[in-house]
Amino acid sequence: MKVWSHLALALVVSTAALAGTALADNAWEEIVSESEARVGTTPARAADPAAQQAIIGDLLADGLTRDEAVELALRNNSRLQAAFADLGIAAADLEQAGLYTNPTLDFVVRFPGGESGSDLEAEMFFALSDLWLLPLRRELGQARLQQVAAQVVSDVLNTAADARQAHDRCLVLESLVAQMAETATTVEKWRDQVHARYEHGYSSELELSMADAEVAESDVRLAEIRAERELALARLRRLLGLTVEHEVNLYGSVAEAPPALPDLEEVTRRALQERPDLQAARAGVLAADRALLLERRSRWEHVSLGPAYAHEPDGEDLWGVVLEVDLPVFESNRVQQRRAGAELERAERQVERAESMVREQVAMAWEKLALAHRRESAMRERLVPARQRAFEYAEKYWREMQLNMLYLLEAQRDLSDARRQHLEALCEVQRAWAEVEFAAGGKLAVGQPPAEAGD
Q: What are the residues whose beta carbons fall under 8 Å from the beta carbon of 328, sequence distance 6 or more?
């Protein structure tokens, strides 16, 4: 009978451990599924160094697209990989929470001083308190694993948004470098023509000086924008977990502005339901509640029961049952219960605070997107075409010697600035859109164009 009871206990212990491992695997599968649905890309744990470098090489080959930048970040970002390790820690804690306390075995052997024989006592203790404590420990471990898993999904969203924004910024700066280089070449040609005209008496010293100054300013602006591009590439490398040895060539162009803005109320509703950091906060409330219940039941934490055996000096064998209880006389667990109750209240207040912050973040991100959308539209439809017409007019009449160089240089500078501002406005739209998606908790569908942004 005793043998069968021990086998049953061993089976329960093994089942609990296997259940903890299965739940950990399920948590990772849910993270992968949630990330695919929210971001469109699957995260992965870092492979061995050789395989990881092969993956990096494949993604960097033929130029790095925006989607490939996100994929690489979700595979190679060091901060995100550390978050994956947090998931492993929580899974190990859950598995540990499902294990029964090891039994203890006590032996007492008495050696007589006279002619009587020795006697032997043996006692085995099983933690009877596991019967009412272990289920709550498992529930607490599951709640903490859910909390960590939700936070990992939030880290995935944040990493994906950072990678998109960094890639967009690098693309914008690449385009600006090309624009500034083209402008610098054009200004140098004009400067040479002004010098040639000056030698024949068709240009003044003022035009000559202005042309030389414009060439110098163009060179400075080109050097500044190249330095900014290198800084942006350094940030992109950090986000993607790359080193300076990895050559990063970008592929693609700055995406056009979405034709429509998402509905603010729908984004807010979705954020309050699906934001993973909110889900993590709510799982924290559940964990705090389980911790409080565990502390309440832990007043009788050390209760053990088991068989006892004694061999008397006269040769008689005695069997019995032994019960060991820690009496809660001086320490009755009331302090721990008060602490756990305060932590539960704090977790509930943190959820309320998180919900308020989510509403604020959604509203701020949406307003930024609306402003960026309106600004990009105005530049694309009105500012850049107007500057282009002014430049064409100035260039035409300068070549016909009806305008001096000052008007042409001013028109060229204004056109260059307008194009730069439009590119930056496009980048700001993409950045704001990424912020709205992050605030909403995942990718958003683009509908039909609205009447006017902000109406």
A: 299, 300
CA distance 374 to 382: 12
Query: Does residue 174 register a pLDDT over 80?
Result: yes
Reading the block at residue 143, the tokens are 């709640």
- All structural domains of the chain: 2-440 (1.20.1600.10)
Reduced DSSP (H G I as helix, E B as strand, rest coil) percent helix, strand, coil of the chain, to 5: 70, 10, 20
Q: How far separated are the first and last CA of the chain, in Å rounded?
A: 80
Residue with tokens 């705090």: 288
- Asked whether the CA dihedral 337, 342, 343, 345 is positive or negative, the reply is positive
Q: For the residues of 94-142, what is the DSSP string, one character each? A: HHHHTSPPPPEEEEEEE--SSSSPPEEEEEEEEETTHHHHHHHHHHHHH
As a whole number, the mean pLDDT across the chain is 84
**Stated pTM of the model:** 0.79
Per the CB < 8 A criterion, the answer to whether 206 and 40 are in contact is no
- Amino acid, res. 198: Y
- Cα gap 298→129, rounded to integer Å: 8
Choose the weakest-confidence range: 235-239, 277-281, 403-407: 403-407
> How many Cβ atoms sit within 10 Å of the Cβ of residue 284?
24
330 CB-near residues (< 8 Å, 6+ apart): none
Measured distance CA(228)–CA(170) in Å, rounded? 9
Q: Is residue 22's pLDDT more than 70?
A: no
